[in-house]
Every structure is written in C-alpha cells, then in structure tokens.
Amino acid sequence: MALMRLADLKSYFKGEIVMSRKCSFTKYSGIGLLELMLSLAIIAILLIMAVRYFQSASNNNAMNSAVDDCNAIKAAAKAYIGANPQGAATVDLPDLVAGGYLPSSFGSTAATAATASPWGTEITISIIPPTVSCTITGIPQALCNGATSPMAQKASQTLSQGESATCATAGTLLITYQL
C-alpha cells in the first residue's frame, strides 16, 4: 500500500474519504490471446469427442442394420420353406421377394442372391435347406477382425444353438443359420 501523507491519515481516521492520487487502472475491452487460445482448445476437445461418438453410433447402426437384414432373410426363408415343403432344393432371394416374404427393398433379381449392405457392398445369401448362409463383405476392419470382433459379437446375440457368426477374414462376416 502506498504511503499516505499525515494529513490524509488524520482525515481517514475522522471518517473522511480523501483521494489524494488518481486511480491508474486502464479499462481494456475485448478478449486477450490467452482467452482466445483457451476457448479454441475447449472447442477442439468437444469436436473430437463429438466426432468419435458419431462414428461409434454410425458403426453400431450399420452393424444392427446388417444383422437385422440377415435375420429377416432367415425368417423369410423359414416361412417360404414352411409354406412350400415340397419346394426346390435351393431358395433364392428373388423367390423370397416375389413371394412377398421380403420387402422389395431387398429387390435382387440376380441369380447371385445379393442385397446391399450398410457399407455399400453386397450381402450374399446362400439358402440350401436346412442352412442359410449370409456373407457380408466390406465391413470396416475395426468392426470385423477376428472371432471376438464387435460385429461377430453383435451377430451372435441373435443366434440359436448350432448357428454361428465369424469374421473369417478381415472385413468379411459369415453368419450361418439353421432353419
């Protein structure tokens, strides 16, 4: 604290307020570089977290969609074979769509019996009663890389005894159902 003159001290103790010096505070408006850099760092951290969350949610959605498609094909094949017990030795995807067992969004008219996966590749189906094989290719390697991959675990949640889901090679999932 600055030294006060004796006269100022006497008036201070008498209850009088005396300002002998001018206040030298300068008002600055705006933000400084430190505040700006701190704000940018916080925004960058939040963006990184949001992008990671979005990628995770997008991958989970794609996995669910692919497994649901395979489960729908299994259910349709089971219904088709139940309605046509003396049917052919094999069932194709176009037969299931034409018979109304699958929606037209599965609309494959090719003999290869394939429909689009969420990753833009094909889901190839082989239906030879009593087995339905569903092969999904083009899965990101982080999701399908080995037997304990997230994609194989997701597919295994809906399987019955005697059915399997394995990531045979990096990016390829093979699900085998029993009718």
Global shape: rod-shaped
Main β sheet profile: 5 strands, antiparallel
Unreliable segments of 5+ consecutive residues? none
Please report the number of helical segments.
4
**What's the helix-strand series?**
HHHEEEHEE
Number of strands: 5
Could you tell me how far the N terminus lies from the C terminus, measured between alpha carbons in angstroms? 90 Å
Q: Whole-number radius of gyration?
A: 35 Å
- Going by helix content, strand content and strand pairing, the class is alpha+beta
Which range does the strand content fall in? 15-25%
What's the pLDDT, averaged over the residues? 77
- Strand adjacency order, main sheet: 1-2-3-5-4
Tell me the helix content. Answer: 40-55%
Describe the protein's architecture and organization.
It is a single chain. With 179 residues, this protein is an alpha+beta fold. The longest helix is centred in the first third of the chain and has 51 residues, at 33-83. It has 4 helices and 5 strands. A hairpin with a 2-residue loop joins strand 4 and strand 5. It is rod-shaped and about 120 Å long. It has helices at residues 6-13, 33-83, 93-98, 150-156; strands at residues 114-116, 122-128, 131-137, 164-169, 172-178. It has a domain at 66-178. The protein has a 5-stranded antiparallel beta sheet, with helices on one face.
